[in-house]
Amino acid sequence: MMYLYYRELGQTGMRVSEISFGSWAIGSDWGPANDKESIKTLRTAVDGGVNFFDTADVYGMGRSERLIAKLKKEYSERIYVATKVGRRASPHIAESYIPDNIEHFIEDSLRNLEVEALDLLQLHCPPTEVYYHPELFEALDNLVKQGKLLNYGVSVEKVEEALKAIEYPGVKTVQIIFNMF
């Protein structure tokens, strides 16, 4: 049994494990993935105290989200999920990050995760220009008011993006891309 520590995530009010489960690999984007093995791995994480899972709609085109939905049905304890949207925009340019597109992606994630509201939705490394379009953040605020999102934040690649994002009061988290390798 792992012994984990928990803390509040950003300004979400969610008390999550300091070690989370990143689900890119179970979406099969890094090579072949076996759903039975993926579920077994997800269960091992929860049994070890992990209660926070990071995913995205592009990880296996919703596959990782669907696997996490299956996992959540097996446990009574609270499992938090952060999912990211926006990378499916084609082309992946600032002009594609319009409220209608993002709302469509959110609806897909709601279906994949089989929930009424996303715990945490993060914009998935949008182009820097997106952070200078307040209408998108206003649309996200409206989705919170509608109950489709409990929280939203951003996943960023640049300090400029993080600093601009936190100017919007609705942004509750900033995930900074980091790869120790």
Key descriptive features of the protein:
single chain; 181 residues; alpha/beta; TIM Barrel; six-stranded parallel β-sheet; two-stranded antiparallel sheet; 5 helices; 8 strands; 19% strand
Your description of this structure?
The protein has 181 residues and is an alpha/beta fold. The protein has a single domain, classed as TIM Barrel (Alpha-Beta Barrel). Helices cover 33% and strands 19% of the residues. It contains five helices and eight strands; from the N terminus they run E-E-E-H-E-H-E-H-E-H-E-H-E. It has helices at 35-47, 63-73, 99-113, 134-146, 159-165; strands spanning 6-8, 15-17, 21-22, 52-56, 80-85, 120-124, 152-156, 171-176. It has a six-stranded parallel β-sheet. It has a two-stranded antiparallel sheet with strand order 1-2. Strand 7 (152-156), helix 5 and strand 8 (171-176) form a beta-alpha-beta unit. The protein is globular. It starts with 5 loop residues before the first strand and ends in a 5-residue tail after the last strand.
What is the CATH-assigned architecture?
Alpha-Beta Barrel
Spatial order of the strands forming the largest sheet: 3-4-5-6-7-8
Uncertain runs are none
CATH fold-type name? TIM Barrel
Helical content band? 25-40%
CATH superfamily: NADP-dependent oxidoreductase domain
Number of separate strands: 8
CATH class categorisation: Alpha Beta
* Mean pLDDT score: 95
Largest sheet: 6 strands, parallel
Q: Given the C-alpha coordinates, what overall shape results?
A: globular
Number of domains: 1
Q: What fraction strand? A: 15-25%
Order of helices and strands: EEEHEHEHEHEHE
